[in-house]
Amino acid sequence: MTTEHEKLLNGEDYDYRDPELQEMLGSARSTVRELNKTLDISTRQKLMKRLFARVGENTIINGPISVLYGKHMTIGSQVFINDGCRFQDSNLIELGDRVIVAPDVKFYCGQHDLDATKRYDQRDGQPRLITTTAPISVGSDTWIGGNVTIIGGVKIDNNVIIGAGAVVTKDIPDNSIAVGVPAKVVKKLPEIKE
């Protein structure tokens, strides 16, 4: 039988009230609370390793952030995450190496049906919000500008700049600058030479 956690990661309708999911949410809340209140760099590094599935070397979180599960996130090396960022990681979120995430960026893996009659149902005699999820992937050497929103199912490739305030609803190819609502590629960047 498929667990609610497996359904969540498979992008299927899942029950967020499931005890395993609630335990994961509680653990993440507790760890994020500790992370956000300490300034000690070594303590912050230990908390990041506890919170995330993987976190690379020399990664910095600069100020308070919000994370839903944590264990669904992998973060590369030399990543800089600024304050006020929200990671709604109800599916996998992957950040490559040398990613810069400006303040107030939002990563939203969850989504609800466009048909309002399909957003709620009953399970075990209780009303239940129906949610599905999709992963988000951000490649290496990418800079995400302030107040950007990234929607589940999106892949942002390597060497990309997302302009401030953009809403990313579709994949963005390598070596691009994308801006706007919805985000569109407006310029190509030179390839990074190794």
Automatic annotation (TrEMBL):
Keyword Transferase: yes
Keyword Transferase applies: yes
SUPFAM superfamilies: Trimeric LpxA-like enzymes
InterPro entries, per the entry: Hexapep, Hexapep_transf_CS, Hexapeptide_acetyltransf, Mac_dom, Trimer_LpxA-like_sf
UniProt xrefs under Pfam families: Hexapep, Mac
Domain Maltose/galactoside acetyltransferase: start-end pairs: 5-57
Keywords per UniProt: Acyltransferase, Repeat, Transferase
CDD domains cross-referenced by the UniProt entry: LbH_MAT_GAT
EC code: 2.3.1.18
MF GO annotations: galactoside O-acetyltransferase activity
Family stated for the protein in its record: Belongs to the transferase hexapeptide repeat family.
Protein name: Galactoside O-acetyltransferase
Source species: Lactobacillus gigeriorum DSM 23908 = CRBIP 24.85
